[in-house]
Amino acid sequence: MWDPLDFKGLKHDHISGLLCSAGEEVVRLQELEGNTVTIHTGLTGVQSDAHILWFYRSENADIKIVNSLVFKGETNTDYPSQRFRDRLQLNRTSGSLTIRNISREDSGVYKLHIITGSISVWSFSVDVYAPVSKPVIRHQAEKCSVSLRESCSPLCSVENGKDVSLSWYEEKERISSISSSDSSERLYLPLNKTNPDCSTYTCVAANPVSTQTAQLDITELCYEPGRSPSLILFSEEVPKSAVLIPAGLIVALSVLFLLYWTKTCKQQGKKYIL
């Protein structure tokens, strides 16, 4: 005989986040839009003549979506909800419910009632997410200048959505992150590196069921076409004084040479006159 209190071994085979699995508590699942999802009960031997009901909570009202019972030895399973049309499938052996082509509108609380003289109830909270968009990296300024140190400010952005986060990684270490509950506005996250080096920088957009990445190409984003990074970095590292001192020395030597040459010419001119 199946014991309705034996609720061990609850699992889920699709992309999901399982937060709890106690009989009277809510089991929380996170799903990707468009998938075929099975809400597993963990049961393996539901009584053959059990009356099985599934409800979906919509706007504070429970809508019956599955009604399966045995009458005169025949099993009759009905799916009365037009909301789910032909997308539901009940497994009477386990009581599990499969939903095909699940959508964000299908998010909500699903309740399972199994009646075998007494009623046993389980609740499942399902959150359905759209795939996260691919992030885009661009330069914050309209035009890059020669100076990497002054102008290179990579900015990553992504279309916001439910539980979307945006992060920068240097190699495998996350160095910054942002999220916003206002899904109507796009997320923006600057790299905040004064002088990005040759490390690998990756922008990652994620929600609980999907991830998209974009890798920063520093050479393409931060340097002018036709100039190598080594030349630009070299010119950045050479201080102005290192350029001005040799130039001033050359000018001074030139003036001294000119004065010496003028004086020599005058002396030679006096000799010829005598």
Provide a compact summary of the structure.
This protein has four helices and 16 strands. It is α+β, with helices and mostly antiparallel strands and 274 residues long.
Question: What can you see in these coordinates?
Answer:
With 274 residues, the chain is of the alpha+beta class. The chain has 2 domains: 26-129, Immunoglobulins (Immunoglobulin-like, Sandwich), CATH 2.60.40; 136-232, Sandwich (Immunoglobulin-like), CATH 2.60.40. It has 4 helices and 16 strands. The strands form 4 sheets. It has a 6-stranded mixed beta sheet, with no helix packed on it. The protein is rod-shaped and about 130 Å long.
Structural class: alpha+beta
Supply the number of structural domains: 2
Q: Can you identify the CATH superfamily of the largest domain?
A: Immunoglobulins
Q: Give the proportion of residues in helices.
A: 10-25%
Radius of gyration: 36 Å
Tally of DSSP β-strands: 16
Distance between the termini: 140 Å
- Roughly what fraction of the amino acids lie in strands? 35-45%
Individual helix count: 4
Query: From N to C, what is the helix and strand string?
Result: EEEEEEEEEEHEEEEEEHHH
Any idea what the CATH architecture of the largest domain is? Sandwich
CATH level 1 name of the largest domain: Mainly Beta
State the CATH topology of the largest domain: Immunoglobulin-like
